[in-house]
Specification:
Blueprint lengths: L2 E7 L29 E6 L2 E5 L5 H8 L6 E3 L5 H4 L15 E6 H10 L1 H4 L14 E6 L5 E3 L2 E10 L2 E8 L2 E4 L7 H7 L4 E5 L12 H11 L3 E5 L7 H7 L4 E3 L5 E3 L1
Parallel strand pairs: 3-4, 4-5, 5-6, 10-11, 11-12, 12-13
Antiparallel strand pairs: 1-2, 1-14, 2-3, 7-8, 8-9, 9-10
Length: 258
């Protein structure tokens, strides 16, 4: 299987620049230091699987030149990963439906939070629209065929919350993880490309720190690891210079072949 993993957003829940911040990173003129909320797209054999719908989704898709997706996989239901869900309307005009997937708890939360989308009794007035989404809950570590592509949902712990990372062939995307249990590490063995979240230098209750992410990357042994969900604590250049061989910061617009 040959494909590409496209990073749409690589920032933390605040994004970078942070509102009201005057730090060197937030004032940086390096485009790699402008980090939207995390999202990505797997592109395989002409099929596109979008991972998450952050608040900047419309702008991210326009910047990437993406005018169609074949399915959406949600990692979890936190606002920085789902608040752009209404932008999926663009893919469901003229009666088209779009399949969305995620952990059972995430699908249930989306149905409740965005009832106007998932309640069949809510019918848009003539001349208006809503996303036409068909939601399916996935089972952790059980391969699912999504848009004709085999996808492995990988469950990780996010400070007590269930999050799914996703593996497609030799590439895996894991964000908002604090703990990767034995089963998750086993499911990631053999990947060549790994995208993994990394927050601060210090420990955090719901996210891997940068040192912890480096250790997890070493345990998995991917040829290339890219850190995402980055804050404004480090410029891209400074972080890149201090990371070990084979580990790099992700950035918005990065395209990784696998």
């Amino acid at each position: 299987m040959n494909g590409r993993l496209r990073i749409l957003g690589s920032g933390t829940s605040f994004g970078v620049p942070v509102i009201g911040c005057d730090c060197a990173v937030c004032r940086s003129d390096d485009p790699r230091d402008r980090r939207g909320r995390t999202a990505a797209v797997f592109e395989v054999d002409g099929r596109r699987i979008l991972i998450d719908t952050p608040p900047e989704l419309r702008l991210q898709l326009l910047d990437a030149g993406i005018d169609a997706v074949d399915a959406v996989c949600f990692t979890h239901d936190h606002a920085d990963h789902v608040a752009g869900i209404d932008d999926l309307r663009a893919f469901t005009v003229r009666g088209r439906s779009l399949s969305v997937y995620g952990p059972e708890v995430t699908i249930a939360a989306l149905r409740q939070r965005f009832a106007y989308i998932f309640d069949a009794d809510v019918v848009p007035l003539p001349g208006t629209s809503k996303p036409n989404l068909a939601a399916t809950a996935l089972e952790a570590h059980r391969t699912a065929t999504i848009a004709d592509v085999p996808v492995v949902p990988i469950q990780v712990d996010h400070g007590g919350s269930i999050v799914f990372g996703y593996r497609v062939g030799a590439a895996a995307y894991v964000t908002d993880a604090k703990i990767l249990e034995t089963e998750a590490l086993a499911a990631l063995q053999g990947v060549e490309v790994l995208v993994l979240n990394a927050l601060f230098e210090r420990q955090h209750p719901t996210h891997l720190s940068i040192p912890e992410a480096i250790d997890v990357a070493a345990a998995i042994g991917a040829r290339r690891t890219f850190l995402t969900h980055l804050t404004h604590r480090h410029t891209h250049r400074a972080l890149e210079e201090r990371l070990p061989a084979g580990v790099s910061p992700a950035f918005d617009g990065l395209v990784i072949p696998f």
